[in-house]
Amino acid sequence: MPRLGRRPLLGLGLLATFAAPSLARAATLTGASLDPARTRTRLTLAVEGEQRWSVRAQADPMRLVIQLPGAAWRGTATLAGRGPVRAGRFNAAEDELVLDLASPALPMAGPARAGHIVIDITRVAAARFDAVVRAGRNVLAGTVRGERALPLVVLDPGHGGRDPGAIGTTGVHEKRIVLQAALELKRRLEAARICRVVLTRSRDVFIPLAERVEIAQRRDAALFVSLHADSAPGARGASVYTLSETASDAMSAALAQRENRADLAGGLSLPSVSPDVQRILLSLMRQETRVGSNRLARLAVRELGEEVQLLPNTHREAAFVVLKSPEVPSALVELGFLSDPRDEAALQQPAHRARLSLALSRAVKQWLESASTG
Ligand SMILES: [Zn+2]
């Protein structure tokens, strides 16, 4: 899988955190159950990633505490009691699962199961329980390795809220078209079970550009795809953009310049990032990220070309703020241009949008496949 390990956050104006050491990412616990068996009660924890664990016994109140250093918890944080266990709850502050006991009981390793911590809890005499508590050692410990979660793809429908984006000759707003396209692409990618998908916005709301970038950075996304349908005189067809300090052509430069003003349209003042800082951010953008972004653009151009008309010189470059993540391979797709009446008509047809989302889902799939093998 691509992109393991939590990356330090680096959004616009967050340069200082770049030097912070990468934290090893602990596992995510995705499920827990307590099941009664004839002579024991079985605790099963489902784990994504690698997780160390250990169990201690405590008296007054009588408890078994399963320590799970650094674990993130997803799903229900409480467990209904079974057998000698009265109740269980995950204590996030201490990274531990606390099992309150109704009667003395001790853990034994359960049957090995990939991606799961399995602990069998058996009733014991009070004297034996007390002796284990007094010894003060871990009763049981281990490490489990579960499958990684599917990689995360962040889709970024441009504009929103007070910022309509481009407006077509019939009054169609770009913000609406790109949100529909993003939702369709999300459905398609999730149905293929190749990745998880998060949208920077799933409603008609204004999200500042830097925040869009940070959503992908913070969640350690594998890919970031921004969707637009802007206006550009004389332009028609789909096109794909990656980040470059110098634009590949005047049209791309103008597009980036207009896009980068989206924060103004949304009511924010321009981000207070000096040109120097912008240059530093750009030079920090890793070669690896650039290679990944370019590969995504090539795949998107190839797949879009199978389905819809393309703008000539389909892969272009410009300094889009929304593509400035130094860690996450990113591309901006112009699905078409609302300034062109034929594109405007096509973008409103569900069949045309289905072809776009099919092409982009194939590009994302191929990108993820080559990332996991290479
Ligand atoms: Zn746009």
UniProtKB/TrEMBL annotation:
Q: Which GO terms describe its biological process?
A: peptidoglycan catabolic process
An example of a GO molecular function for this protein is: N-acetylmuramoyl-L-alanine amidase activity
Enzyme Commission (EC) number: 3.5.1.28
What cellular component GO annotations does this protein have? outer membrane-bounded periplasmic space
Hydrolase recorded as keyword: yes
State the signal peptide span.
1-26
Reactions the enzyme catalyzes: Hydrolyzes the link between N-acetylmuramoyl residues and L-amino acid residues in certain cell-wall glycopeptides
Under the heading SUPFAM superfamilies, the entry gives: Zn-dependent exopeptidases
Source organism's superkingdom? Answer: Bacteria
Which keywords belong to this entry?
Hydrolase, Signal
Q: MurNAc-LAA domain spans which residues?
A: 213-365
Protein name, please? N-acetylmuramoyl-L-alanine amidase
- Which organism does this record belong to? Neoroseomonas lacus
